[in-house]
């Protein structure tokens, strides 16, 4: 039995085939564009998928300082186990929306759903100090948004969703290599979780 995502994708493919079979080029192209978008954009969060994010940004060269944020929803497995996948998906949607709605996407910042409960953001023309301020802002927005919140959750210990964020900045680490910064941001994120969660940690040369 197909799930909703698979059914939607099959509908797109079917529409594309019908357009081709009926020599309706505009219809075929319309559905083909939707299939391509589906492959690039995560349907739940509306953000870039990990594969596209990596392919697009690993090969870029950066001439100015930039920072990478690695964001992880705290205790997400336990949250999912407690409230179910549907509620977990709602939490992913809400966090993704909070991240994309509070970064400078119009100025070139990029947010991607990296997989599972993880997100990544590239903040262009952003040094370590500015990245920390931006990450703290995002952390507080998500914490105080109480995503998702119901009265019945109060006794469960999951009153609100929080995130742990790791930062790697090119000015601090003295490298603009994307893979290096992504790896260091991930390490900093892990340190944030090990240090108690719901916090921001900046990668240094010693992390």
What is the general shape?
globular
The second-level CATH architecture of the largest domain is 2-Layer Sandwich
The CATH class assignment of the largest domain is: Alpha Beta
Count all strands and give the number: 6
Query: Which regions are unreliable across 5 or more consecutive residues at pLDDT < 50?
Result: 1-10, 12-24
Number of helical segments? 8
Secondary-structure element series: HHEHEHHEEHEHHE
How many structurally independent domains?
2
Question: What share of the residues lie within helices?
Answer: 40-55%
Could you describe the 3D structure shown?
The protein folds into two domains: 4-40, no CATH class; 48-202, Alpha-Beta Plaits (2-Layer Sandwich), CATH 3.30.70. Strands 1-3-4-2-5-6 form a six-stranded mixed beta sheet. Mean pLDDT is 79; it is low at 1-10 and 12-24. It is globular and about 50 Å long. The protein has helices spanning 4-21, 25-40, 50-58, 76-83, 85-101, 128-145, 170-173, 178-194; strands spanning 48-49, 66-73, 110-115, 118-124, 163-169, 200-202. It starts with a helix and ends in a 5-residue tail after the last strand. It is α/β, with parallel strands linked by helices. The chain has eight helices and six strands; from the N terminus they run ααβαβααββαβααβ.
List keywords for this structure.
2 domains, 8 helices, about 210 residues, Alpha-Beta Plaits, disordered N terminus, about 15% strand, alpha/beta
Architecture blueprint of SSEs:
Layout: H1 4-21, H2 25-40, E1 48-49, H3 50-58, E2 66-73, H4 76-83, H5 85-101, E3 110-115, E4 118-124, H6 128-145, E5 163-169, H7 170-173, H8 178-194, E6 200-202
Parallel strand pairs: 1-3, 5-6
Antiparallel strand pairs: 2-4, 2-5, 3-4
């Amino acid at each position: 039995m197909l799930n909703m995502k698979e059914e939607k994708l099959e509908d797109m493919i079917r529409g594309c085939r019908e357009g081709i079979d009926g020599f309706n080029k505009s219809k075929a192209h319309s559905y083909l564009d939707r299939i391509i978008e589906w492959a690039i954009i995560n349907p739940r969060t509306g953000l870039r998928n990990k594969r596209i994010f990596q392919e697009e940004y690993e090969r870029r060269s950066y001439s100015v300082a930039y920072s990478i944020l690695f964001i992880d929803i705290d205790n997400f497995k336990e949250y999912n186990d407690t409230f179910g996948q549907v509620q977990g998906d709602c939490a992913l949607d809400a966090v993704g929306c909070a991240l994309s709605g509070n970064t400078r996407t119009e100025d070139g910042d990029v947010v991607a759903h990296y997989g599972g409960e993880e997100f990544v953001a590239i903040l262009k023309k952003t040094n370590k100090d500015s990245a920390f301020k931006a990450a703290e802002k995002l952390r507080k927005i998500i914490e105080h948004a109480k995503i998702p919140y119901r009265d019945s959750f109060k006794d469960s210990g999951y009153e609100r969703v929080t995130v742990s964020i790791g930062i790697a900045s090119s000015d601090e680490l003295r490298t603009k290599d994307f893979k290096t910064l992504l790896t260091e941001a991930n390490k900093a994120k892990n340190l944030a979780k090990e240090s108690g969660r719901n916090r921001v940690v900046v990668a240094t040369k010693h992390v």
